[in-house]
Amino acid sequence: MVECLAALTLASFILSLFFTPVKNALYAYRLYNDRRIAESRICTVGAVLRIPVFYCALGIPLDAGEYKKSFGSNLSSPFSWNGPISVIQGRDGKADGCLRLAYGCPEPCRTLREYNAGKADSSFRFDAAANQNYFALDLHDKSQSVKNWVLFENCVPRRTPLVVTRASGSELQLKTLSADEAVVPKGDRLLLFRAVECWALNDRLYTKDFRTTGDQPRENGVCDIRFYLNDDRSRLTVCLIVRGDDDSLAPGRVVGAEKCPEELLSQWRGRSRYVLYCARFTWPILNNRAQQLRGMAYNGGNA
């Protein structure tokens, strides 16, 4: 019995030497896996916003009044927005919680010559056929659908959206609702008008793509997201808080707190049973900035 007790005591001592490192290793693995899940969610948010931000304001007026006028003063969204990029209150009532982006998505076709578009339909021919399935031409008032608006980057007057009234092969029938006449130069790219909203609600990221109906859930585990524009709307900063999936890891712990403003973090400290991970994206609104530089050069030339 003495020998058995001594053997058990020795075995328990030896096992304890291995148990603590194994326990720590398992904990470290759970932390790593939890962080990997959170980083995947952060990357998804970045991927959802990257293309709309990159093409934001391409072929679209910057000024809120000109933007609304260019779409025929339509009172419905997204035609009534305050320009191609704006930030409004989120669906949960939080300030800066919803981002609105209007942008031009390039098609692989260009005009064959210079064309004029007026209040009546004008025929435009391209060097390749546009995607015929994109347009919604069965509507009586075609201007009510986002799908039936196209843009041209070098249109004169600049940034004049045009309505598609008919599509056949590489030919489109277009007209304008804002100017007496718009001139599109030879070789200008066809841009499809698109608009999207983005926000977080009830632990999930949502978008609303105006080419379809309803809200689209995009990613789980996104606790909060806020959008900040600088004064001239040439730079967008996105701050977000996502969570991991393991609720047994130091609940309420915040990783990367320096990436989010304290007024945002204070709403989440101690309220989550998961580890929280903060992230920040800062993107230039390239087309917005380019339009501003062109305007400065034009005014300087006049001076």
Q: What do you see in this structure?
A:
With 303 residues, this protein is of the alpha+beta class. It has one domain (37-302). It contains four helices and 15 strands. Strand 10 and strand 11 form a beta hairpin. The relative contact order is 0.15. The mean pLDDT is 88.
List the main descriptive attributes of the protein structure presented here.
single chain; 303 residues; alpha+beta; nine-stranded antiparallel β-sheet; four-stranded mixed β-sheet; 4 helices; 31% strand
User: What's the end-to-end separation, in Å?
Assistant: 105 Å
Radius of gyration, rounded?
A: 27 Å
Order of helices and strands: HHEEEEEEEEEEEEEEHEH
**Content-based structural category:** alpha+beta
* Nearest-integer average pLDDT: 88
Low-confidence sequence ranges = none
How helix-rich are the residues, as a percent range? Answer: 25-40%
Global geometry: elongated
Strand content: 25-35%
How many beta strands in the DSSP annotation?
15
Instruction: Tally the structural domains.
Output: 1
Largest sheet: 9 strands, antiparallel
Number of helices: 4
